[in-house]
UniProtKB/TrEMBL annotation:
Protein name, per record: Rhodanese-like domain
PROSITE patterns, per the entry: RHODANESE_3
InterPro entries: Rhodanese-like_dom, Rhodanese-like_dom_sf, STR17/STR18/HARC1-like
Upper lineage: Eukaryota, Viridiplantae, Streptophyta, Embryophyta, Tracheophyta
Annotated source species: Dillenia turbinata
Gene Ontology MF terms: catalytic activity
Record domain Rhodanese: where: 23-125
Length: 136
């Protein structure tokens, strides 16, 4: 477990092994990747939520200006939230923003979805359309 400090908040970062245990003990998983990334595959857990922290634009990635508003519509400030992204960078920033907004139980998943997959944990991927395999 490591922590990143800023002037106002300390983000606790845990590895995916600890994260998996937190999820099974009732933490809500908040995936902050883009919808496109999420749809390609995500952590396979029941209590998952996808709210992008950043969007891809022609100018590059920009922060989602409605991120905190969208989270507050779905989560209480007392919920136990595990924040994940692709590699752990966006989730670190998202975790810091949530803590600054008075969310009390926020944990960052270090390594993100990439580390989850690398450890062989269960993922959910879209069903492949096999209709193109059929010959007419």
């Amino acid at each position: 477990m490591t922590s990143q400090e800023s002037s106002e908040t300390t983000v606790v970062t845990i590895d995916v092994l600890v994260a998996k245990n937190l999820i099974t003990s009732g933490h809500r998983y908040l995936d902050v990747r883009t919808e496109e990334e999420f749809k390609k595959g995500h952590v396979d857990v029941e209590n998952i939520l996808n709210i992008p922290y950043m969007f891809n634009t022609p100018e590059g990635r920009v922060k989602n200006p409605e991120f905190l508003e969208l989270v507050s519509a779905k989560c209480s400030k007392d919920d136990h939230l595990l924040i994940g992204c692709q590699t752990g960078v966006r989730s670190l920033y998202a975790s810091a923003d949530l803590l600054k907004a008075d969310y009390k139980h926020v944990t960052n998943m270090g390594g993100g979805y990439a580390a989850w997959v690398e450890n062989g944990f269960s993922v959910k991927k879209p069903e492949l359309n096999t209709s193109s395999d059929k010959t007419s």
